[in-house]
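Re-run with default settings, no changes from the original entry. Doing this only to confirm the output is reproducible before filing.
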Amino acid sequence: KESGCDCQNVICARYDKYDQTSPILELLSSSSWELLLKRVGADFMVYLLQHTSIFLPFLGRKHQQVSGPPLCIKQMETLTVHDNKRK
């Protein structure tokens, strides 16, 4: 693929078909996610996991994407913002 991503949703990333597990599925199996499922219902939960990018804290100040289309960034561009002052 052009983007360099190997799946359509990060939930499938590093999924082990034999063990039927993945690091992301383990994160999404916590009691907090069970509570959210109970409150919003299965249909809305599926929608959230398929169509929104959700990030969880990971190793201090970093975050890991756990759902949605992968945000693959090959190279970050630096944008310069010029200070336009009115005269």
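The beta strands are 54-58, 62-67. Helices lie at 23-27, 31-40, 42-51.
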